[in-house]
């Protein structure tokens, strides 16, 4: 745990170093590239090889897919409260997603011209669901449900297998509830490669969505162009903006909620205008961490990924938060709504002391697939819009084309593209 003070002359340099360390790791990028090349060149054989190497599971291509019987059986092994929680989250995510539905529209900005947009759902998408150190059941719902609401016909889930090649039954039950059409017991970089390039057994998708560790994130970056992507969603991070009104126990609990994800690359920030809050939160972190079942992975984050920043003013705290552009941003300050309106860059904003980040992870409604590592400055979280194709529609009458042909031919002249101009004049000349 490291404490930085904005009033310190060396603060600017150290703060820049913290932002720099979130850049892609060249070693991770190289490892991902090697695995992707293997999948692209050798298809199913490479997928089976990497499943054995990384997930310690012996699979044949015939065993990549989770059968309908396995999916049906999964629901019978879950207790009633688990199924109720999954159904509740699915309903609430669906309600929010339906509010985002896009409708075709058009208008006439000038006589004889009609412009608009059409939206059609993608045909086949792949959802990556982390399942190694923790089976992220909620990620199934926060990806597949949106695709289903958008009208995607083929929704493919890939998730790392557990012991014996089994997929966690809650993941399978959630996949069925949300509307997945295929589930494969493969994970990591090789699963991203299979979705992007396709193999004899696994047909390629048009888009890959969902979060993952640093290696999955590197793989997604590298297959961009072969396939569409949602955003850069790597190891989790949280930033809490707090003043003297905040409860240090709440802050510590929320910081630990993201530290426990398990990769050791997670980050948790506290930016506060009250220096006295820092030692209170530090003590709460250490005490609460000892009580957690995943204390070993939490300890890595507490050592290397927890940062306290003492800001001079609320506006200064907001400015620093915008520079970090965190995946999750919590506001525990007086007048949190007013502070929230000042935020310009974050994956999601959690407002007030009674809105812990895990409500967003699980049940609130908006997707928990959010940009990380500062990508919130130029990416937004997963929404229904990610599952549509948008097409502009343009219609001119003969009279409208005649009125604008002069500008069209002038652009063609300026750009040296005479065929462009002729495509317009061949029509207007015929009208004479």
Explain how this protein is built:
By secondary structure, this protein is α/β, with parallel strands linked by helices. It folds into 3 domains: 26-233, Rossmann fold; 235-358, Nitrogenase molybdenum iron protein domain (Rossmann fold), CATH 3.40.50; 401-430, no CATH class. It is 46% helix and 17% strand. The protein has 17 helices and 14 strands. It has helices spanning 11-20, 26-42, 44-55, 68-77, 80-98, 137-150, 169-178, 188-197, 214-223, 248-259, 277-289, 295-304, 314-324, 336-340, 357-362, 398-415, 418-430; strands at 2-5, 105-110, 113-121, 124-128, 154-158, 182-184, 207-209, 228-229, 237-242, 267-272, 306-310, 328-332, 348-351, 388-396. Strands 1-11-10-9-12-13 form a 6-stranded parallel sheet, with helices on both faces. Strands 6-5-4-7-8 form a 5-stranded parallel sheet, sandwiched between helices. Helix 10 (248-259) links the parallel strand 9 (237-242) and strand 10. Helix 5 packs parallel to helix 6 (137-150) and helix 16 (398-415) packs antiparallel against helix 17. It is globular and about 85 Å long.
Low-pLDDT stretches: none
**Rg from Cα:** 25 Å
As for the CATH topology of the largest domain, it is: Rossmann fold
Q: Kindly state the mean pLDDT as a whole number?
A: 94
The strand order across the widest sheet is: 1-11-10-9-12-13
Number of strands: 14
Query: Can you count the helices?
Result: 17
Net shape: globular
Fourth-tier CATH superfamily name of the largest domain: Nitrogenase molybdenum iron protein domain
Strand content: 15-25%
Give a short account of the largest sheet: 6 strands, parallel
Q: Write the CATH architecture name of the largest domain.
A: 3-Layer(aba) Sandwich
Whole-number count of domains: 3
Report how far the terminal alpha carbons are from each other.
79 Å
Helix fraction?
40-55%
């Amino acid at each position: 745990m490291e404490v930085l003070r904005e009033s310190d002359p060396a603060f600017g340099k150290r703060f820049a170093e913290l932002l720099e360390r979130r850049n892609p790791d060249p070693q991770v990028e190289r490892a991902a590239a090697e695995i992707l090349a293997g999948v692209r060149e050798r298809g199913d054989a490479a997928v089976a090889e990497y499943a054995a190497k990384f997930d310690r599971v012996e699979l044949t291509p015939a065993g990549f897919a989770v059968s309908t019987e396995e999916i049906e059986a999964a629901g019978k092994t879950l207790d009633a409260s688990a199924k109720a929680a999954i159904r509740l989250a699915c309903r609430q995510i669906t309600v929010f997603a339906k509010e985002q539905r896009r409708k075709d529209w058009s208008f006439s900005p000038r006589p004889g011209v009609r412009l608009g947009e059409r939206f059609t759902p993608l045909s086949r998408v792949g959802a990556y669901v982390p399942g190694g150190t923790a089976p992220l059941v909620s990620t199934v719902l926060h990806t597949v449900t949106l695709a289903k609401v958008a009208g995607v016909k083929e929704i493919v889930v890939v998730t790392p297998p557990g012991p014996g090649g089994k997929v966690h039954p809650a993941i399978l039950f959630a996949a069925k509830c949300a509307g997945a059409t295929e589930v494969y017991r493969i994970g990591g970089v090789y699963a991203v490669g299979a979705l992007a390039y396709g193999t004899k057994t696994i047909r390629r998708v048009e888009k890959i969505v969902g979060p993952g560790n640093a290696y999955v994130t590197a793989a997604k970056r590298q297959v961009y162009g072969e396939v569409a992507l949602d955003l850069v969603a790597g190891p989790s991070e949280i930033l809490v903006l707090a003043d003297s009104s905040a409860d240090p126990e709440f802050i510590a609990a929320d910081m630990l909620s993201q530290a426990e994800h398990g990769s050791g690359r997670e980050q948790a920030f506290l930016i506060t205008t009250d220096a006295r809050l820092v030692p209170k939160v530090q003590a709460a972190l250490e005490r609460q961490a000892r009580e957690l079942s995943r204390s070993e992975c939490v300890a890595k984050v507490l050592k290397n990924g927890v940062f306290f920043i003492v800001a001079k003013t609320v506006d200064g705290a907001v400015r620093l938060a915008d520079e970090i552009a965190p995946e999750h941003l919590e506001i525990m300050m007086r007048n949190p709504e007013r502070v929230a309106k000042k935020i310009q860059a974050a994956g999601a904003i959690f407002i007030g002391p009674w809105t812990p980040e895990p409500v967003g992870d699980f049940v609130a409604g908006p997707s928990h697939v959010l940009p990380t590592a500062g990508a919130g400055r130029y990416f937004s979280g997963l929404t229904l819009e990610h599952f549509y194709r948008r097409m502009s529609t343009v219609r001119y009458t003969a009279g409208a084309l005649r009125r604008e042909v002069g500008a069209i031919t002038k652009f063609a002249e300026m750009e040296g593209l005479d065929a462009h101009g002729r495509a317009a004049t061949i029509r207007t000349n015929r009208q004479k």
